[in-house]
Amino acid sequence: MLFAGDDPWSARAFHAELDAGGYYLVARDDEDTLIGYAGLAVVGRKLGEFEASVHTIGVDPDHQGKGAGKALLGALLARADELFAPVFLEVRTDNQQAIGLYEANGFARIGLRKRYYQPSGADAYTMMRPARTEEVAG
């Protein structure tokens, strides 16, 4: 189980995200077995006004710490950078590995959401990475 104590993404939620135009990726191992997935939602009407939100990143526990999450996040951020969009996300306050990955990629904590994850009631940090400017991204 990827998210012990919580069930944040039902099949219906994934389908709704895809129907809404969400940007989703999967990671596979050398044997073509699914080992992870990630999703990014983008809102806005034109370049310079977009905002992106990392909706999920999950990596099979047997494959964590081997670069799959970093690669998935990198691909999501590259998409956001194409749109010059700031990126937001929530992460469990006790997930130090993920927090470290996000901070290493330019995210900063901007808020706390009490009892964000259900049914566990775990708290989440809201984090944000500023939009890349054309000069940096180009």
Automatic annotation (TrEMBL):
Location relative to the cell: Cytoplasm
Major location category of this protein: cytoplasm
Keywords in alphabetical order: Acyltransferase, Cytoplasm, Transferase
Ranges that cross the membrane: none
Protein name: [Ribosomal protein bS18]-alanine N-acetyltransferase
Pfam families: Acetyltransf_1
Reaction catalysis annotation: N-terminal L-alanyl-[ribosomal protein bS18] + acetyl-CoA = N-terminal N(alpha)-acetyl-L-alanyl-[ribosomal protein bS18] + CoA + H(+)
Enzyme's top EC category: transferase
Family the entry assigns: Belongs to the acetyltransferase family. RimI subfamily.
Matches recorded under InterPro entries: AcTrfase_RimI/Ard1, Acyl_CoA_acyltransferase, GNAT_dom, YpeA/RimI_acetyltransf
Higher taxonomy: Bacteria, Bacillati, Actinomycetota, Actinomycetes, Pseudonocardiales
Record-listed E.C. numbers: 2.3.1.266
Function description: Acetylates the N-terminal alanine of ribosomal protein bS18.
One Gene Ontology molecular-function label: protein-N-terminal-alanine acetyltransferase activity
Record NCBIfam families: rimI
Annotated N-acetyltransferase domain residues: 1-132
GO CC list: cytoplasm
